[in-house]
Amino acid sequence: MQGTDKILAARALLRWYVDAGVNEAVAAFPVDHFEVRTLAAPAPPARAAAAPVSVILPASTPSADEAAMLAAGAAAACSTYEELAAAVTAFTGCPLKAGARNTCFADGVPGSALLVIGEAPGRDEDAAGKPFVGRAGQLLDKMLAAIGRSRAADTLISNVVYWRPPGNRAPTQAEIAICRPFVERLIELTAPKAIMLAGGVPTQALTGATGIMRARGSWREISLSSGARFQALPLFHPAFLLRQPAQKRLAWADLQTLAARLRDA
Ligand code: URA
Fold first, then answer.
1. Contact assessment for residue 79 and residue 197, using Cβ atoms and an 8 Å cutoff
2. Which of the listed residues 96, 123, 124, 125 should we mutate to test ligand 1's pocket, taking the one with most ligand atoms within 8 A of CB?
3. Of the options 2.60.120.280, 3.40.50.2000, 3.40.470.10, 3.40.50.300, the CATH number for the domain spanning 64-264
4. DSSP states of 191-241
């Protein structure tokens, strides 16, 4: 193999690992990441007499609770949408960021009457640095157009986490909890008249309602830690509608419910 071929092959292999969800090299000894930052690893049995080995984790790696507190402080310090976008982009406390190419904060018109909140960026969003730009995003655009709205004119679109989970898995509770202060601040700063929750993950994360089949189509309250309350309507996620087009009938009915609220507001 030529030198450049080897580099290209190594790059392709690394990309494959990242896409498969690998986000760190395996150390010589197991590390319990829930434990303290610096811990002595057990000495290997065959070399018991050798010098003890220490696994030093970066002192700056916060626990999920610490990261959520850091996010809360950073979000509270923002008084405009632009400041919040910059704070999210600068935030390093969410472990998803290490495996992502870009931060996908939001797309559309801040301060719109309608805010759409989805689950997490996927591969296309990660590459573009914007939420909902892949196939599901294109269907979302069509759904919005069906009620006379668009991200270019009068809708803001975001997610409950801002970095692509490896292998497109669902975001964990901890990842959602870390990003939540930013999500709450986005809602506060943009004060939408209605929030569309795209799918079960944002519905459960923000309203507590479980099971999108039951939750869809009924107005729910999002109660922020500031005490503010916002009205939200869960709908099927566009990616689900791509797999189950027969469910578009129900999504259409839910879009009419959303449009009616926006007309009356
Ligand atoms: N699905 C989501 O929930 N969000 C995106 O940004 C893209 C796909």
1. no
2. 125
3. 3.40.470.10
4. --SEEEEESHHHHHHHH----HHHHTTS-EEEE-TTS-EEEEEEE--HHHH
Domain assignments of the chain as residue spans, ordered by start = 3-54, 64-264
Going from the first residue of the chain to its last (265 residues), give the mean pLDDT of each consecutive group of 10, the final group possibly shorter: 68 66 50 46 49 48 94 98 98 97 98 98 98 98 98 98 96 98 98 98 98 98 98 98 98 98 91
State if residue 205 touches ligand 1 by the CB under 6 angstroms criterion: no
Amino acid at 197: L
Give strand pairing partners of 107.
Answer: 157
What is this structure's pTM?
0.79
